[in-house]
Amino acid sequence: PDGRPLAGRRAVVTAGPTFEPIDPVRGLTNRSSGKQGYAIAQALADLGARVTLISGPVALSAPIGVDRVPVETAREMKAAVEAALPADIAVMSAAVADWRVDGVASGKLKKAPGGPPSLALIENPDILASVSAPGKSRPKLVIGFAAETSDLEANARAKLSRKGCDWIVGNDVSDDVFGADGNTVTLFTRDAGDESWPRQSKTEVARKLAARIADHFKA
Ligand code: C5P
């Protein structure tokens, strides 16, 4: 028998950026290496969870023992998350583009004497908010991320109630975070207090978060 703390649990993790096409060769995207999300997927699998990792385009190989589903757009990511439910745990670490281009050009847009084209943007679905919505397929523990350059606590607490998730991993991105191996994180929970973790590697942050998740299910 598998005595690991998350054996028998299912987890869905989103990671990396999304890519929203403008035309066949261009797009809008976000800065995200995917490192933190991939490390979380790995750490959950190491504790025995069955992990589906829904990943935007990144330059990382799939963690061992994790089922990776590659996607590009926010809408593809949302569909892949829904297909991976039900799950006990959802960790939404992806940097999802807030907008996509309305009316993607079927051919490459050309430079023209009339000046640059204008792009009409429309809002993407909020995957974290929809996964957090009450219902029978809502995971028991839904965790979101808040990357902020200031007012981390106020922004993270506001996000907790606006999105309806259970925990928020607050990320101070004024520090060197994008693409780096280290991360400075505060965990905000709905029922318990906050926990600030000193700057440590993304692997350590992931192990610590996975251990907190395991404690939550043990309690
Ligand atoms: O609203 P904001 O983008 O700052 O919230 C960040 C959190 O919400 C992250 O957990 C991110 O993965 C998630 N998110 C999402 N779908 C969106 C936007 C953000 O799942 N469209």
Automatic annotation (TrEMBL):
| Gene Ontology biological-process entries | coenzyme A biosynthetic process; pantothenate catabolic process
Q: Which residues form the DNA/pantothenate metabolism flavoprotein C-terminal domain?
A: 6-215
Could you list this entry's UniProt keywords, alphabetically sorted.
Answer: Decarboxylase, Flavoprotein, FMN, Ligase, Lyase, Magnesium, Metal-binding, Multifunctional enzyme
- Which portions of this protein are annotated as coiled-coil regions? none
Obligatory cofactor(s) = FMN; Mg(2+)
Q: Pathway involvement?
A: Cofactor biosynthesis; coenzyme A biosynthesis; CoA from (R)-pantothenate: step 2/5; Cofactor biosynthesis; coenzyme A biosynthesis; CoA from (R)-pantothenate: step 3/5
Cofactor binding description = Binds 1 FMN per subunit.
Q: Which residues form the signal peptide?
A: none
Q: Where does CTP bind?
A: D98, K108, P125, D126, I127, L128, F145, K159, K163
Residues annotated as region Phosphopantothenate--cysteine ligase? 11-219
What reaction does this enzyme carry out catalytically? (R)-4'-phosphopantothenate + L-cysteine + CTP = N-[(R)-4-phosphopantothenoyl]-L-cysteine + CMP + diphosphate + H(+); N-[(R)-4-phosphopantothenoyl]-L-cysteine + H(+) = (R)-4'-phosphopantetheine + CO2
GO MF annotation list: FMN binding; metal ion binding; phosphopantothenate--cysteine ligase activity; phosphopantothenoylcysteine decarboxylase activity
The organism's place on the tree of life at top rank: Bacteria
Q: What is its EC number?
A: 4.1.1.36, 6.3.2.5
Query: How is this protein annotated for GO cellular component?
Result: phosphopantothenoylcysteine decarboxylase complex
Family classification: In the C-terminal section; belongs to the PPC synthetase family.
Q: What does this protein do?
A: Catalyzes two sequential steps in the biosynthesis of coenzyme A. In the first step cysteine is conjugated to 4'-phosphopantothenate to form 4-phosphopantothenoylcysteine. In the second step the latter compound is decarboxylated to form 4'-phosphopantotheine.
Q: What name appears for this protein in its UniProt entry?
A: Coenzyme A biosynthesis bifunctional protein CoaBC
According to its UniProt entry, this protein's organism is Brevundimonas lenta
Gene name on record? Answer: coaBC
**Portion of the parent chain present:** 190 to 408 of 408
